[in-house]
Write a structure and sequence with these properties.
By secondary structure, the chain is of the alpha+beta class. The protein is globular. The N and C termini lie far apart (29 Å). 31% of the residues are buried.
């Protein structure tokens, strides 16, 4: 869990992803379209993948990926991010991290 917390604070917006996950890709594209350059951690390329997945779920992410952190705090997965975007609450949250 310490590794996940450290990784989630590396940049203003951090996305834990898997290279084969289409939902992870959609979330990444959304942030890029908003003008944010998120730090992407492809956990399937990390030797500690299983531990990272378990830590993300213990932190409260319903599915291990995508897991989005903004300002070092877990926002959630695809459903939470898209709901925030549709309700216009995502842009103000990421405004400090725009490129």
């Amino acid at each position: 869990m310490d590794k996940v917390m450290r990784m989630s604070s590396e940049r203003g917006v951090v996305i834990f992803s898997k290279s084969s996950c289409c939902l992870s890709y959609a979330v990444q594209v959304l942030f890029q379209d908003l003008g944010v350059n998120p730090k992407i951690h492809e956990i399937d390329k990390d030797p500690e993948c299983r531990e990272i997945e378990k830590a993300l779920m213990r932190l409260g992410c319903p599915k291990a990926v995508p897991a989005v952190f903004i300002g070092g705090k877990l926002v959630g997965s695809t459903n939470e991010v898209m709901s925030m975007h549709l309700s216009s609450s995502l842009v103000p949250l990421v405004k400090p991290y725009l490129c």
